[in-house]
Amino acid sequence: PSSLEKIIDFFERADFDFVHLDECWERLIGKRANRRCAVFTFDDGYLDNYEFAYPILQRRGIPFTIYVAGKFPDRKMPIWWYALEQLIMERERITINSNGKELSFPCETEQEMHSCYSKVHQRILLAEGMEGYKRLLEEIFLDWDGDLYDRAEASPMSWQTIIDLSKDELV
Q1: What global pTM score does this model have?
Q2: What gap in Å lies between CA 113 and CA 84, rounded to an integer?
Q3: CA dist., res. 20 & res. 38, Å (int)
Q4: What is the dihedral of CA 17, 68, 120, 91, to 10 degrees?
Q5: Are strands 64-68 and 40-44 parallel, antiparallel or unpaired?
């Protein structure tokens, strides 16, 4: 919350207008005023968007957009990026197969952990198609006892919360 407040304060001091995404687009293509503008967007639909960001933005009258990943509220989307962090903290090494080649990444020191996360994250994002993506996630998390779909640090908003938010003209 304090970081968001500081960002808002920075843009206010720099004399930016806070606008909806549509208005920003209209300004960019020259249909509206030429004043500088800022748009707040949030990805995936995390509950903390509602619990922390929304009260601040609402109090200050600042519009924003939340892009909700469709499977996220139903907990049907693997939240692998948080799970990968946890896995790396628990292991000394992560080994994956990539294009028939075994790749092994040490993760004992903080620097190795960052490097491992970056390399494995990149491999997941570049997986070929949905089947390649699923296969790689299964391989990485094969013997891990955590839950890829229910991570405390990544709680999704419920559909009801999303509906309630959508009624606010700032959203």
Answers
A1: 0.71
A2: 10
A3: 9
A4: 110
A5: parallel
